[in-house]
Design brief:
Elements: E1 2-7, H1 19-22, H2 27-37, E2 42-47, H3 51-61, E3 67-71, H4 80-88, E4 93-97, E5 119-122, H5 127-137
Parallel strand pairs: 1-2, 1-3, 3-4, 4-5
Site (Transition state stabilizer): 17
Protein name: 3-dehydroquinate dehydratase
Pathway: Metabolic intermediate biosynthesis; chorismate biosynthesis; chorismate from D-erythrose 4-phosphate and phosphoenolpyruvate: step 3/7
Length: 138
Amino acid sequence: MKIIIINGPNLNLLGRRENNIYGNETFNDFFEKLQKKYANQEVSYFQSNIEGELIDKIQEVGYKYDGIILNAAAYTHTSIGIADAVKAIETPVVEVHISNTFSRETFRHKSYISPNAKGVIVGFGLQSYELALQSFLT
């Protein structure tokens, strides 16, 4: 199975950013553990702070991969372009958020991606990514 994790803005700062919300572990450290645990799966990773690069990556893999795990971060709540990219592709997308977005600021309660996602996982920390991965394997 070929799965890609696509992370949006500021997620490159995990482990240093708002540890009370996002924890102390870097995404790269977490990703290495995930790859080892699921060594029989092809799991790759892409991160960008730039909306257009995220759209380009979604379009690039959206007809070739078996699944996309997408944490568009703040773009979740603002980007119709990313939402349209998710809608346009064939590969199923699971929307993921590390924090419980519904316990945060009101603007984080709206997702433009959710209506076109296979599912949504929020609030389980970095474990949210593994839950999303497992959803493709069952």
